[in-house]
Recover the amino acids of this structure.
């Protein structure tokens, strides 16, 4: 995928990390900018994410409700979900490198070890 905004890429990663649990716009602002006053920025990033997903032909993975966003985990295939499902290839190839570029992923990373 080609990302016009790094925050849109990070938002998708965060939604994948949440495994289908919805997050509010304020929650997204806190995670992406560590500032709950940045909720206006969320709409811009959300628009960019939708555009990127549409261009990739997979915009249907995003679930939007009033002030809540999640992904449809049944429509997402990734090594993280394979690992959680006990897929032996995913388990055997994991070496602790889960989303290291994102500080918010530390909690998940520590639980995967």
């Amino acid at each position: 995928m080609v990302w016009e905004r790094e925050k849109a890429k990070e938002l998708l990663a965060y939604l994948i990390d949440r495994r289908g649990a919805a997050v509010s716009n304020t929650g997204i602002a806190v995670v992406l900018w560590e500032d709950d006053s940045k909720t206006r920025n969320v709409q811009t990033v959300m628009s960019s994410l939708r555009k990127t997903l549409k261009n990739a032909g997979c915009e249907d993975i995003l679930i939007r409700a009033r002030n809540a966003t999640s992904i449809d985990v049944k429509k997402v295939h990734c090594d993280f979900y394979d690992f959680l499902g006990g897929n032996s290839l995913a388990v055997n190839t994991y070496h602790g490198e889960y989303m290291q570029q994102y500080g918010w992923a530390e909690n998940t990373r520590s639980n995967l070890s």
